[in-house]
Every structure is written in C-alpha cells, then in structure tokens.
Design brief:
The chain is built from 18 helices and 32 strands. By secondary structure, the chain is of the alpha+beta class. The strands form eight sheets. A six-stranded mixed beta sheet has the order 2-3-1-4-5-6, with helices on both faces. Strands 7-8-14-11-10-15 form a six-stranded antiparallel β-barrel. Strands 16-19-18-17-20-21 form a six-stranded antiparallel barrel, surrounded by four helices. The protein starts with a strand and ends with a strand.
C-alpha cells in the first residue's frame, strides 16, 4: 500500500527535521532553504514502515509568506503530521495551518510534539492540552499525540508505529477511477523532456496513457512517456502516491503549479460553482474578492453570498471540479478565511431579480448531491455528464422520477411537459395549414429546445401523435385538399384522358394549384411530381412501362417520346424517374433499355 502524508505547523517548529529523522532524506530541495534553515517551497521524502507501507512525505513551509505553497502541499494530501514545538507551543501559523486542515476536511493524522529535549515534562503536557483545545473543532480532534525529539531520537520509533496504525485505518483509494493529478512541479530533463509531479489520490497512470492537461490555457492532450514514484520507474502507478510523469506534447513553459492532468472527457471544467461553508467565518462577512485554493491551484475569485452558509464563487479561470471538492478561501493578504465544499459544480445562472434568494433557499433545503433534483433542473442530461460532475459513479441506480433513454436521463415532469407542448404544436400545425402533412419531426428538437435530437423519439412516444414519412399528426387526422379539391379533380380528369400531357406551370397556376396544394395532393397519392415541375398521375410510370416494353430494345429518347405521345419536356424527367426506380437502365446519352 502507498500513502502520502503532509506536514503542517508553524515555521521553525522542526517539520523538515522530523521528516529527515523518519526517512533519512533531506526534504528541502533548494540551497537557499538549507542555508537559511527555512522551508520555502514543498519538499519531498519517503520511507517504508515496518508494516511494509510505502509512505511519501510532502513537507510544507510554515512561514506566513508561503501560505500558498503550504496549501498546494496540503490540498491533495489525505493525511497530516501536525507539528508543534514543545518549547514554543501554539503559534500564529499553527492556527493558520489548523484552519487550512479544517477547510480541507482532513481528518486523519497525528499530532507531533517536537523538540521535547528543549522543554520540561510539565511544559510538554501544557502544550498538548493547548493543542487539544485548538484542534477540538477539526478532523484531528481525536488524533493520537506523539512526543518527539529529532536530536535525541525520543519518540521517533513510536511515531513510526503510530503512523503505521493510522495508515491501517485509512480507506483504500479508488484505483479504477478517473485521474486528476494536481501538479506542484514541472521541469525538464535532458534526453527525457518535460516531467510533472503531483500527489495521485485516485485512479491509475500508466506509460502510454493519454491524458488532458487543464490549466490557464486551452486544454491540450499529452501522452505519458513514463511514470516514476520515489525515483523508481514503474509501468503503472496507483493511488495514493507521489508520482513524476514524463510527458510528450508539452513544454515546461506551458505548465504551472495548479494545472492538472486529467482523464479525457471525465471531468467538468468550471469557473462558476456553488459552495457550502464547512469552516471559518460566515460568507456574509467574507470580502468579495479573494483567493480560492483547490488542489494545488490558487485562483483569484469573487464571492457572492447566498446566505451565511452558501455562496456563488466565480473563479478567474476554469478548473476541473467535482461535487464535494474542498475550496480554501484566503483574503488578498495571508489570512485563511475558511473553507467551502462544492455543492454544485455547474450551477444555474442568476439573472433575474430574486434569483439569488431563491437559490439560497433551495440550497438550504435540499440535500447535497440530489441526483433527481439535478436531472429535474436540467430537464434531461446524459449519464456521462452526471459522472463528470461527480453526481453519480459507475454503480449508481436510476433515481425515482427519471426516464431512461440510451445514455440520457429525462425528468418525468419535464418529459410530460415536453409531450404536451409537442401535441399542442402538432394540433396548431393542423389548424394553421390543413393541407400540411403535419409537424416535421426534424423541427421538434428546436421547437421544444431539447438538449439533443436523440430525445425526440422518447417525447413522441409519450404522446398519442403518429409519426409517418417524417411528419407528426394527431390520431384520426386526414389532411384534406380544401378549396383545391375541385382543381385537383379537374387535373386528374385531364391526365386520365392524356396520361403524359403534363400541364404547364401557367396551367397549374390558372387552376390555383401551387407548391403547397400539389404537395398535399401528392401525399394523398392523387398526383405524382417529377423533376422540373412535371405533374402526372401516380399511375403514369406503370402506363409508360407498358408502352416502352413494346419498343425495340434499346430505345432512344425520341422513340420513347413518340410512343408516349408527349414532349421532350415531359419524357426526360419521366425516364429519369423510371431509371431511379430501377425499371429502366440508361446505357448512354441517347439510349435506354427496359430492365427485365
């Protein structure tokens, strides 16, 4: 099993020294850090415990100037060593880091009292009591406490044992889930190319994988050339682990801390989210402009309160976000204001007066992640999109009140409303134009403002309308010819006497037969329309075939014209119609034959 553990605590309380004592690895990466004895950026080290557990440590800076770096290290880590020096006790950045843990919802870890060699037993007990009070309202309220000294070695073995015990109670991570690797470093290696690192909390990354890089630019596809963990190359690395991914298709100039490598088409990217307060001050007291920290990202944001416990957060750029993600809110200075949990990564727009109040009341009343409510709000949505939002997983059952059609989930109420709207539209089409064939099926998706034409058959099935030849009609509806009946009848008599003497356009106009009337007559199989405006009876092709079959084969266009007693204007569209039906075959520009 692999684990990632982050440190937390005030500056100069011995976090890095403690990590080195546990692992034998100096976590400070920069010469400046080692020279000053001050952690500035994230450090990394690893070890194997007696149980065989593989543990990677992310050592975070404690100074107030590097809170953003600290949050980038804590954000993706599920377990923490909260370090307080016995001689100095609880300090300002101890409180900042506590607030960060509360905002992130980290509830597994160990309280480590460091530098016990510099304090009396009474002082150590006093510090422990203070720490317990300060952590009482956090996920570390019941965390075990270990007293240590990296100088004398006191408590180091006990800390390893306790860490083993804590790790043993940690839920197994999801190895088959979608990948979202928040990046904390990017660098290039001669001969290898661009390498990015981060804490992999779910999913699996393998050499050859295709991932999507999401950052402060358009998303781009990258290929995984190789993957390492703790300086060892593996074909595949799973959670929870520190990983280094050798990429193809991107340079270090295109990557920054806070970007993410994600499974393609598996995450919703959003810059507008609704959050619920999980720690800190009321949202009514939070400044409008602040910095939001998610994963390793630190993004300028604007907060709009929706009451004391809910808010609309607008980020400066899109991030791959999901239901229940944690967001740390920090003021433009260095103070952590509190934390929020995403309750809607794709909230509705607030456009009209009163929308914010209605949204606030809805968020206060409903349960987070109410899938049926989310489907109802959208009317219809795909299962894939619900997965991207984090609302369902692969094993989720269809909630009550939802109609399933293919990959789509449709709210029953919306389906009923769309069905009524469709029936009314078909009735209106009949009333508006009695000659029409009904309502075109192709127009339904736009008419009902459906999210996808694939929903049309389901909506039609929820009505009593009939679909035929691409049109929808009401039950029992028979389109008549109305005032055009006499004209069509007169034309039928004329063509019965002379089957191939098609009327000229002026003749049709004189009868009052325009395109609409002719189309209606054709739908009733009263007339047949050919190319170039030629109108005949539906029986004309069969009558023509009787005559053409008596001609010497192959026959010419002129021979056909003479045999049928018609003109070139009529015979060419008629012969082309026979060709299309497979009754005749064109041999060359001037000859055809009857297909036997």
């Amino acid at each position: 099993m692999r684990y990632v553990v982050a440190t937390a605590g005030h500056v100069d309380h011995g976090k890095s020294t403690l990590v080195k004592a546990l692992t034998g690895i100096e976590p400070d990466r920069w010469a400046e850090e080692r020279r000053r004895g001050l952690t500035i950026d994230l450090g990394f080290a690893w070890t194997t415990l007696s149980s065989g557990a593989d543990v990677a440590f992310v050592d975070v800076p404690g100074h107030e100037r590097f809170i953003a770096n600290m949050l980038a290290g804590l954000g993706p880590a599920p377990i923490v060593l909260f370090v307080i020096a016995a001689d100095e006790g609880w300090r300002a950045q101890s409180a900042d880091h506590r607030d960060a843990l509360a905002a992130l919802g980290i509830d597994r870890g160990i309280v480590v009292i460091s530098r016990a060699d510099r304090a009396s037993t009474a002082r150590v007990d006093e510090v422990i009591a203070t720490v317990r009070t300060e952590l009482a309202d956090t996920g570390l309220a019941g965390a075990p406490t270990v007293v240590t000294s990296a100088v004398t070695g006191q408590g180091i073995d006990e800390l390893r044992t306790t860490l083993d015990e804590v790790l043993a109670t940690t839920p197994e991570p999801v190895t088959t889930g979608r990948v979202r690797l928040w990046l904390d470093r990017a660098f290039s290696i001669t001969g290898a190319g661009t390498v990015v690192t981060g804490t992999l909390s779910a999913g699996t990354i393998s050499a050859g994988d295709t991932l999507e890089l999401v950052g402060d630019h358009r998303a781009r596809t990258i290929t995984v050339r190789g993957v390492q963990s703790e300086n060892v190359t593996y074909p595949t690395v799973g959670p929870v682990s520190r990983v280094a991914v050798n990429t193809r298709g991107v340079s270090t100039d295109d990557i920054a801390r806070g970007d993410a490598l994600v499974t393609p088409d598996a995450w919703h990217t959003s810059s507008v989210i609704d959050i619920r307060r999980v720690s800190g001050i009321s949202f009514d007291e939070v400044p409008e402009h602040l910095t939001a920290h998610v994963g390793t990202a630190a993004v300028p944001a604007r907060l709009r309160p929706l009451g004391p416990d809910h808010a609309r957060l607008t980020l400066d750029r899109k991030l791959p976000l999901s239901l229940d993600d944690r967001v740390v809110l920090r003021d433009p200075g260095r103070r952590i204001l509190g934390g929020g949990q995403i309750v809607d990564p794709e909230p509705p727009a607030l456009r009209r007066r009163g929308d914010a109040a209605r949204r606030s009341a809805l968020l206060d009343a409903r349960e987070d992640g109410d899938v049926a409510a989310e489907v109802a709000r959208r009317g219809a949505t795909t299962v894939a999109h619900l997965r991207r939002l984090g609302l369902i997983d692969g094993a989720s059952a269809t909630p009550p009140g939802v109609v399933v059609t293919g990959d789509w989930w449709i709210d029953e109420t919306a389906c009923t409303a769309w069905a009524k709207q469709l029936r009314d539209a078909v009735a209106a089409a009949h009333a508006r134009d009695p000659l029409s064939a009904g309502l075109s099926v192709a127009a339904v998706a736009d008419l009902l403002a459906l999210p996808d034409p694939a929903l049309v058959p389901t909506i039609v099935a929820a009505t009593d309308v009939t679909a035929a030849d691409g049109y929808l009609t009401l039950p029992g509806h028979r389109a008549g010819l109305g005032s055009a009946e006499d004209a069509v009848a007169a034309l039928e008599r004329q063509l019965t006497d002379h089957p191939f003497r098609a009327p000229e356009s002026d003749d049709l106009g004189a009868l009052g037969l325009g395109t609409k009337e002719l189309a209606a007559a054709e739908r009733q199989r009263r007339l047949l329309r050919l190319h170039d405006g030629i109108v005949l009876l539906p029986t004309a092709p069969a009558l023509a075939m009787r005559t053409l079959a008596t001609l010497e084969q192959p026959f010419t266009t002129s021979a056909a014209r003479q045999a049928l007693g018609t003109t070139r204007r009529v015979v060419i569209p008629l012969l082309e119609h026979l060709d299309d039906r497979g009754w005749t075959r064109r041999l060359d520009a001037g000859h055809r034959e009857v297909v036997r």
